[in-house]
Amino acid sequence: MNSIDRLRVVSIVGARPNFMKVAPLVTAFQAHVRDVKHLLVHTGQHYDKRMSESFFSDLGMPKPDINLGIGSGSHAEQTGRVMMAIEPVLEAHRPDVMIVVGDVNSTIACALTAKKMGIRVVHVEAGLRSFDRTMPEELNRLCTDSISDLLFTTDHIANENLLREGVDESKIHFVGNVMIDSLMRHQPAANDTKFAESLGLKSKSYASLTLHRPANVDDRENLVEILDALVDGLHGMPVVFPAHPRTRRQITEFGLADRFTSKLAEGGIWMTEPLGYLEFLDVNSRARLVLTDSGGLQEETTILGVPCITIRENTERPITVTQGTNRLAGTSRQGILKAISEVFASDGQVSARPEKWDGQAATRIVDLLCRGA
């Protein structure tokens, strides 16, 4: 294949979870520079330096070829602005393939725009389902999968979901988990940061926490119940809580700032700014347990072998429950306390590694694309 015949690919990143998924694809494409012309586009959906820029350096990613600078807004505003901004980019570069990952607003916005322009759409991390259509992410997943030409999945459950929805089996490829590619590649560098140690934390003596989903942080009563359950269930154990900017705003508006400790050494929940990828990976890998409403952390803890408690009523990653370290606690005080108690009683539990979560998912994807899948 000569330079004129090279496959033209545009990959989209928008929000923080996308970066860990696209980074290994960028590396895999670099091994095919004679066959592929790859363009990296950042929509700017996450624009805060700690939420975006630091991840590029931590993951060894080149700076985006194009940054659309979209910024925040309502779901409709953000989706519309991304569509308007990506269209002239696609007109100018006319890619053969657009790769979108995950389930953020940038994912569906770019996929829909490309599809209407006759560009093949590839969805990485396809087929995940929570079966809860009140979640914006679930709607983004469903819509993106329904218009994608190729669907790359992380596990057999995702394959089954797509087949049940009537997707042609020839479009579906089980390749593994690109987020785990990033974790496995960068864990040694994360350990070398000794970030948890710099905070005065001893391994397996503290917890890690993330909260950002609207159902958990937009209702004061729900948020108070979750925070109270964590404090009571952890019995003074220190908790590192890198707060999403939106979550921090809600905490301030609800007048809940006094529920957080100012000194991590004193125990309780210590709220800090968002951490870089390597810093947070070091914190999570050494934690006694991780509490989260994030999807990605359910997967990462499964590979790290760290107990995870998911503070949600459902998960689009059920394999982390059946074959991992994850417990689905719900959002009630009783459910959270029960899950914490089970973790403390489960020393020595070892999880199995899901099939193809081996650090080679991106290589499989790029090989398939280069072979004309």
Give an account of the 3D structure.
The protein is an alpha/beta fold. It is built from 16 helices and 13 strands. It has helices at residues 16-30, 53-58, 75-93, 105-116, 136-147, 156-164, 178-193, 195-198, 214-217, 220-234, 245-253, 277-286, 295-304, 319-322, 333-344, 361-370; strands at residues 7-13, 36-42, 66-67, 97-101, 120-126, 150-153, 172-174, 207-209, 238-242, 268-272, 289-292, 308-310, 326-328. Helix 2 (53-58) links the parallel strand 2 and strand 3 (66-67). Helix 10 runs parallel beside helix 15 (333-344). The longest helix has 19 residues, at 75-93. The two termini are 16 Å apart. The mean pLDDT is 93.
In short:
The protein is an alpha/beta fold and 373 residues long.
Structure keywords:
alpha/beta, seven-stranded parallel β-sheet, six-stranded parallel β-sheet
Helix and strand layout, with pairings?
Blueprint: E1 7-13, H1 16-30, E2 36-42, H2 53-58, E3 66-67, H3 75-93, E4 97-101, H4 105-116, E5 120-126, H5 136-147, E6 150-153, H6 156-164, E7 172-174, H7 178-193, H8 195-198, E8 207-209, H9 214-217, H10 220-234, E9 238-242, H11 245-253, E10 268-272, H12 277-286, E11 289-292, H13 295-304, E12 308-310, H14 319-322, E13 326-328, H15 333-344, H16 361-370
Parallel strand pairs: 1-2, 1-4, 2-3, 4-5, 5-6, 6-7, 8-9, 8-11, 9-10, 11-12, 12-13
